Amino acid sequence: MVLQGCSHSASKPPATAPSADSSALSAGQGGLGAAPSGSASPTANAPCAIFPADNVWHADVSKLPVNRDSAAWVASIGAAAHAHPDFGSGLIDGAPFGIPVTAVPAGQAKVKVTFSYAGESDPGPYPIPKNARIEGGANADGDRHVILQDTAACKAYELFDAHPNADGSWKAGSGAVYDLRGNALRKAGWTSADAAGLPILPGLPRADEAAAGKVDHAIRFTAPKTRKSYIWPARHAASDATDASLPPMGARFRLKASVDISKYPPQARAIAQALKTYGAILADNGSPWYFSGTQDDRWNNGQLDALKSLKGSDFEAVDSSSLMLDPNSARCRP
Question: Which of 172, 221, 224, 281 falls 20 to 30 Å from 272 in CA-CA distance?
Answer without folding.
Answer: 224
